[in-house]
Write a structure and sequence with these properties.
alpha/beta, Rossmann fold, seven-stranded mixed sheet, 31% helix
Length: 277
C-alpha cells in the first residue's frame, strides 16, 4: 500500500482523506438511500462518502441497522442509490457487474447440497452465461487450493465444517478473477477459533490475489485486524462516523491484537461506535 495513505508509527490511526476518485477501486460521494413504502420512508444511508484504492482492504464496521449491507449492495448494483455518485473500478456499478468484475460472499455459504465442493465452485460457469474462464484466471481446482481445500474437491457440503463451507463460498466468488470482492459478514456465524483462522486465511488470499476487498463486520477486532482502512457507520440514519487509515504491518498475524498500537486503534474505533449510537 502506498505510504501516503498511512499514519506514522507513533500515530497508527488518523482520519482518512476525502474521496479523490483518481484510480480508486470504489468511490462513493454523498450516497443516500431511502426506502419508500405506503406506511413510511426509511433513510438507510445519508450522504456517505469514502474511497478505496485498488488492491485495498476496507472494513465496514457498525451496529445492526446502520446500512453496512445496504452500502455493499449499492456497490454491487443490487440497490439503487436515491442520490449521490458511485464509481466501481472506474465505471458504474452496473457496468462492473455486467463485466463480472466483482464477486460477492454472503454470511451464509449458500452451497448446493447435491453438488461437491468443486462443482459448487464451478457453478457460475454454468449459470452465468460465460462458459470459459478469462485467460490466466485460476481454475476452480486451483481456487480450492488457494483457500486451503486441496483434497476436499469431491466432498459434499454436509461433509464440510462451517468454516470449510465458507472457504468454498470464497473460492466460488473468486472464480473468473474479480477485481473487487464484497463480503457481507461472512464469518459472523462461526465459532471464535474458526473465525480467527479464516481471518488469517483471508489476509493471505488478499495479498496473493491483489483483489480489492470490502468486508462487513460487527467486530472491532475483526475490522481492525483485516482492514487497511476501517469505515465506521452510525445508525438512524446510516452515516459515516469515522474513516480510519490503519498503520499496522501488512504482514500481520493474530498476535498483533495484543500490541499497544492495535489496542489504541481499537479504542478509537469503539469511541467512534459510541458517538454514533
Amino acid at each position: 500500500m502506498s505510504g501516503a495513505l498511512h499514519g506514522t508509527a507513533a500515530d497508527p490511526a488518523r482520519p482518512a482523506t476525502a474521496p479523490s476518485g483518481a484510480g480508486g477501486a470504489v468511490v462513493c460521494r454523498n450516497v443516500t438511500v431511502r426506502f419508500v413504502s405506503d406506511r413510511r420512508t426509511v433513510t438507510a444511508l445519508e450522504n456517505v462518502s469514502f474511497s478505496v484504492e485498488r488492491g485495498g482492504f476496507l472494513s465496514l464496521l457498525g451496529p445492526s441497522g446502520c446500512g453496512k449491507s445496504t452500502l455493499l449492495r449499492v456497490v454491487a448494483d443490487l440497490v439503487e442509490p436515491t442520490s449521490g455518485d458511485v464509481s466501481v473500478l472506474g465505471m458504474s456499478p452496473r457496468d462492473a457487474r455486467l463485466r463480472r468484475s466483482l464477486g460477492f460472499v454472503f454470511q451464509d455459504a449458500a452451497l448446493l447440497p447435491w453438488r461437491t465442493a468443486l462443482q459448487n465452485v464451478e457453478l457460475p460457469l454454468e449459470v452465468g452465461g460465460v462458459k470459459t474462464l478469462p485467460k490466466g484466471a485460476p481454475t476452480p481446482r486451483e481456487l480450492l487450493a488457494l483457500v486451503g481445500l486441496s483434497g476436499w474437491e469431491g466432498s459434499f457440503p454436509h461433509e464440510l465444517s462451517g468454516g470449510m463451507r465458507q472457504r468454498v463460498s470464497i473460492a466460488r466468488a473468486l472464480l473468473g478473477g474479480p477485481r473487487l470482492l464484497l463480503m457481507d459478514e461472512p464469518f459472523g456465524a462461526l465459532d471464535e477459533i474458526t473465525r480467527d483462522r479464516l481471518n488469517e486465511e483471508l489476509r493471505r488470499i488478499w495479498q496473493e490475489t491483489g483483489t480489492t476487498i470490502l468486508f462487513v463486520t460487527h467486530s472491532v477486532y475483526e475490522a481492525l485486524y483485516l482492514g487497511e482502512q476501517v469505515l465506521v457507520l452510525a445508525a438512524n440514519p446510516g452515516r459515516v462516523s469515522d474513516l480510519v487509515q490503519v498503520d499496522l504491518p501488512r504482514d500481520r498475524d493474530l498476535k498483533i491484537r495484543d500490541t499497544e498500537a492495535f489496542v489504541r486503534v481499537a479504542a478509537r474505533l469503539r469511541e467512534s461506535l459510541g458517538r454514533g449510537s
